[in-house]
Write a structure and sequence with these properties.
Length: about 130
Amino acid sequence: MSTQPSKELETFENQHPEKDYTIRIRVPEFTCLCPKTGQPDFAELLFEYVPDKLCVELKSLKLYMWSFREEGAFHEKVTNDILDDLVKAIQPRFMRLTADFNVRGGIYTQVVAEYHQDNWEAPQKVELP
């Protein structure tokens, strides 16, 4: 294989840093391992962020997601760790990560973690007719 899993997140310059706009990235095939049983856990991740100076490069994000495949992690921890790593890499104005884990033992888990810069305020939502 020409690529391997990686914890390195690459970035590129935001081409419109003067604007508040939202980037949404859906990762439908996230996997990690249950730290108690070693069985695989599957989730769909949704990233929503308002970039500041940097954006995350998608191939590096894919390889980063792949790096969790053999790691044991509780849902709450892995969600917050991923959010923290992305915030460290791109320092967005705002970021929300929703991790929607598949059913395990009759229980669904959804973890939502957020970050925002201290001085950032969300623009008002515009409702069109």
